[in-house]
Amino acid sequence: MNLNKWLRNILFAALLFGMLLMTTGCWNRIELNELGITSATGIDWDGKQWIVTYQVVIPASISAGVGTVGGGTAKSPVIVYSTKGKTIRGAMMQSYSESPRKLFFAHNRVVILSEDVARRGFEELIDVYFRNAGPRETVSMLITPGTARRVLEQFMQLQIIPGEGLKDIILSETKNTSVLPNMKVYQVAMDLSGEAKSTVLPEIYISGSGDTSSLQSLAQIATQSKLKLGRLAVLHNGKMVGWMTRKQSLGASYLRNSVQQASLVVPCGSENGANQYDTIQILRSSTKLKPVLKDGQLAYSAIVQASGSLTESSCSENLYKPETISLIEKTAEQHIRSIMLDAWSRGQQLETDLFGAAEKAHRKYPKMWKKQWSKEWSRTFITAQLEVNVDLRIARMGLSNKSFQYLTNKEKGG
Question: pTM for the full model?
Answer without folding.
Answer: 0.86
